[in-house]
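Suppose you are handed only these lines of text.
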Amino acid sequence: MAAKTILEVKDLKTWFYTRRGIVKAVNGVSFTLDEGECLCLVGESGCGKSVTALSILRLFDSPPGKIVEGKVLYEGLDLTTCAMPLLRSIRGKDIAMVFQNAQSALNPVFTIGDQIEEQINTHMPHHDRNSRQKATALLEEMKIPEAAEALKMYPHQMSGGMKQRAMIAMGLSCDPRILIADEPTTAVDVTIRAQIIYILQELKARRNMSIIFITHDLSLVREIGDRAAVVYAGKVVEIAPVEHILNKPAHPYTIGLISCLPDISADLKRLPSIPGNTPNPIDIPSGCPFHPRCPSVMDICRTVEPEMLNISGVQIAACHLYDANVTGKR
Ligand code: SF4
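From them, the structure of the protein bound to iron/sulfur cluster can be written out as follows.
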């Protein structure tokens, strides 16, 4: 039986109105997330992954930010327009977020225990009496040694890895159905990184939790993702099961990203890279936003924006190379 879709992001646009111009950080993102699925949002820094995640829960500063178009449907409810009290009751409880920098996301003047318990008591008042017990169990689940003692620590008393795991514990404290993890392993060493990935895989399987995992690291996508959505210039340009993205990428940008994966067996003088830079979100190129960097660019790419095209049933990409009307191939 097909899994149920739990979240649907439809043509979402989040723009920031600044003195220098309109920053189109998210410029038409669409994807779905199924129950128990891990969808990875992949792309270079500045492509709009994190703002997409923040937009789901309306967690960006407004002004200057504004959702100018699109929908975020959670069980049919549009989170972009629902009343703020209702959205607040969903944040943390139904959909939780783990931020990339635990050091700045945790409150330095409260202990870890207080911060986790506050979350539990806000959303699950019936847990009031045993919130400390639940907080201890969460830190144990995160493999933090001497969990009861760790709850009494302030963030500055913890190592980077402990803080990141405490953040994940806080995210999981109200048993959310969806966890948005924004580069949760960026600031930790490889051993802690492996532990965090293992914990997330295990939680996903045990709780049937859905995960949106944001990363620029394709090796992590291989480890944790079911599907991956490749984001460029504030748009999803390719979406497919992870094995398709890694083994049969369709979009030239995805192909470029894969070719940049380091290969220790290759005798290379320098690591490959995609020429050029990600576009300035104030001044996104016309037509296909990837055209100034694309090795397969055609005339039409400079003026006409490609639509998402079905490549192989489960793989969709926005590229004129797959449009039979452009290439003449059937
Ligand atoms: Fe390259 Fe054109 Fe495809 Fe864009 S539409 S990725 S420029 S071939």
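What can we learn from it? The chain has a mean pLDDT of 90. The chain has twelve helices and twelve strands.
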